[in-house]
Amino acid sequence: MADAGVRSWPAPQASRIYYGWIVLGLAALAMVGTLPGRTQGLGLITEPLIRDLGVSRVDYAQINLVATLLGALFCLGVGKWVDRYGSRIVLTSVVIALGVIVLVMSRVTSVAALFVVITLTRGVGQSALSIVSLAMVGKWFRRRLTKAMAIYALAMSVGFMIAFPAVGAIVQASGWRVAWAGLGFCLLIGLAPIAWLVDRSSPDTIGLDVDGEPGRANAERQSSDSVGLWTALRSPAFWVVALASAAYGLIASGIGLFNESILAQRGFAPDVYYTALAVTAITGLAGNFAAGAFADRGSLRSVLLAALAILSAGLIGLVHVTTVVHVMLQAVAMGIGGGFVMVVFFSFWGRAYGPTELGRIQGGAQAMTVLASAVGPLLLALSVDATGSYSAAFYSLAACVALLGVAAAVVPMPPGVGAARASV
Question: What is the model's pLDDT at position 171?
């Protein structure tokens, strides 16, 4: 992997903090930088944007759907670049590209231009930058990967919890164009230079061992080899974990976009919806912490099974909520289940298949989650149009999640690096 100028970087002394933790912090910051390309980020500017450009809500929804589907294609190349050239070069380049795109988006005046820039923010932000961020941690940790990914998930979640209201406040005070221009400048003059100065693509580029523990890391390296993308794709566990993560993405995007409408059908006011959002976010952090603490000593299979059981129950519960307490309990279930899925998704690929083609493998899995997140709102909308209710969709999704749970319980472990520990 090429990292210009990295070979001369002095190797930290054993008494110093392992440099992988610094890379982890940068990776979490990079994931927060995907905000302009995420559904929740675009949601911050949806109303003022469609008023400003005179776009109908249906047209904007169609633009968003097609842009998300096209943006998923960006997942297929960036992982290969990370594996070949190293995360430092790729991360800096992707952040610069996203910054320029966001700045251009802040000045669009036509629907055609809007479609182009939203597609690019989806592709470069939600897809490409997400893959680089995830791969960075996987390149630096092996034995402690699950713990590292749990910390990464916590840091990322806290970052988003700070970023979303901050950007929303700027949108309310100064307009969406000012907010988006500010994000573009933050990416260009803030995150991009930090990425180039701080990131190092892998421990060996600065003379360190994976996990910072030479004896144990070398023993693990000698005992097993990484596997490639095609070997991973032939592993049943790859598809179970990828489909489970995609199912959660589909559920989260669909409920996230229509949650106010879903609760309104059950007779709840909008303030209950906002409270439920906060509860889901907080319990999601708790889920990250609990899953990371358990999986670091136990089995990712157990974490995934618990996540799918909780999510299936939460979906069924959403059909039957009748009191505010019920709504909050359902929000807790979705938060904890989502937190569990997040830790499994972040941790599994490196533990099961090793670091050599980690970017490619995570890119394939990420593409599935992006596609599913695009389809989720459409499925719920079609369900409402056909039946007048969301109930049929939630029952069907609960059944699909339960079936994935059965598959996760019986699927064989993948061959290759970490198979003895991956236990999915």
Answer: 87
